[in-house]
Amino acid sequence: MPADAPDAKPPQRPHPWKVEGVPPTPAPGGPKRPRSSWVRFGGMLVVLLALNWIISSFFLAPPERAPVSYTFFLTQVQGDNVAEITSTADTIEGQFKKEVAYTPTGDTKSEQVDRFTTQRPSFADDDLFSQLQADNVPVNANPPDAPAPIWQQLLIGFGPTILLVALFIWISRRMAGGGGGGVLGSFGKSRAKLYQPESGPRTTFADVAGIQEVEQEVTEIVDFLREPGKYRKLGAQIPHGVLLSGPPGTGKTLLARAVAGEAQVPFFSISASEFIEAIVGVGASRVRDLFDQAKKVAPSIIFIDELDAIGRARGSAQSLGGNDEREQTLNQILTEMDGFTGSEGVVVLAATNRSEVLDPALLRPGRFDRRVVVSPPDLAGRRAILAVHTRGVPVAPGVDLDGIAASTPGMVGADLKNLVNEAALLAARRGHDQVRNNDFTDALEKIVLGTVRGLMLTPDEKERTAFHESGHALLGMLTPGADPVRKISIIPRGQALGVTFQSPSSDRYGYSKQYLMGRIIGALGGRAAEQVVFGDETTGAESDLDQVSNIARQMVGRWGMSDAIGPVTVLPPPGQESPFGDGVAPATKELIDAEVRKIVDECYAEALSLLRSHRPQLDSLAHRLLQTETLDEADAYAAAGINPAEAPGAVARGEAPGSTPAPGIPHPVSADSNPSNGVPTPAPS
To answer: Which of 469, 530, 595, 655 is catalytic?
Structure first.
């Protein structure tokens, strides 16, 4: 047929994606798949109904009647022991008022009789009816053992089976998330949520800020999904998987949503824990179903959140053996990502906070070809994140977002979003039309220092707390390399009776030994001040001692800052201790303890010496704090009589600016708190 003929069909453009392992779509009118599951279910249902009917017939049938002689029956009539009778022709059936013993003719064993039947002889010449009337015995004409009504027979005969089947269907559908892929529900159906490109507003890279270097890593994946031909003609292949790792709240899930939004392709989102069920094999079945769905709409993206829930290394201490359900699920994911059946056109994005525990087979090229670390943002990144989260917030003209970003070192995107939300809530509570700068600063204090408690301290406790916090603050001003003091307060917040807020002027990449020693000296300042002023110590230094012990132990055991131990690592990172031992010799542990004690003793002696030599400044700062209860940076340095620009902590700081805290030591923000990821958690002070 000519190409310009009226009935000519336009040439079909070949789909740029080749999906292997997907069965072809059956032609209309072609053979249908056998419905063997329906046949099996129908046969099982018929057998259950028949069995139920047979069993129920025994319950519906009346109990048997014992045949007795007519002479025995007359004896019971004369003894007034007959409750009622039914007579049909010469057959008499009835029930005695109470059970009696009856011995059949020719038998020596008697039996208890309640329901009876007997035959009246035709030659009997007795006045039976008169005797029954005299004893008020009802004489019935209806059959006493008539069958139950039809509705009772149906209810008892089929009801239990129907109820049991309905219960099975309900349970299976609940466990399958409502999927109707089978007669009893589909346990193996994937629970992933599908987001189509046309299904409403999508997240884009404009909604992601502060992690530009990570965006560049995934931008080419978006470009590949949009224009695969540009890469294919050069022989390039799209990565099978991209693993996003980093601390919680850094934006891994948000970045995955942005990739799908920019690529304009179907996006399947699921948590790794949703693959696992109590039934063995369900996890692997759900993985197969998820990849089958993604292949049918390729190009597409699968996002698996918290991958470490199923991706832990096989054969580890957490594994239960080769038949463990998690290992079967992991094996299926490995096969789908790079097995005999290809998954071309399907990109797998995964997020985890524990990349170090993942199975090596997951991390090899061909599966997760690209691993991207999403780190906490630097100063410029925090400023950009605040700009994103304040889009829909009416911010007053005087709000200094640059200053807020500088005051939040170590905070991640989730923390900054929470900060903006707390500031908006505080502004609404105060009746403001716009969120002002003091709303942001007060919200930051609430998050960093804790909520103000309505706790009334005694004068003695208040004075001791003032000297405790003044000791922290004064040593922060005097110790070379220490972080500047931003705020001091003796207002109880959270679990703390008082807090001293310190934060660096710029972000840091690493920490020197001088800085860490200064951290220890500052943390011991509260205890040292109590010793200098009052001559004894209290329990208020509990969280300070926790920080001191943690920093000193890592200096010795992880960072090689002890001459006795040397430049070796003998302790695991915090939170990664093995339950089967750390492999450290007892003598080495004793040496670690001795070195930790040596560092702490030196720092405590230095803290005592500094406070004794600057006792007037300590008293001045504490008395001023007792009067106002809260001192900001300028007031604190003025009360101590120290010029912030000439303080030893400012002059000799000497630290290189950076963006990411060194592992294990977050940015110091409070001497009376336990920081985590740069955000302090106030503890009793």
So the answer is: 469
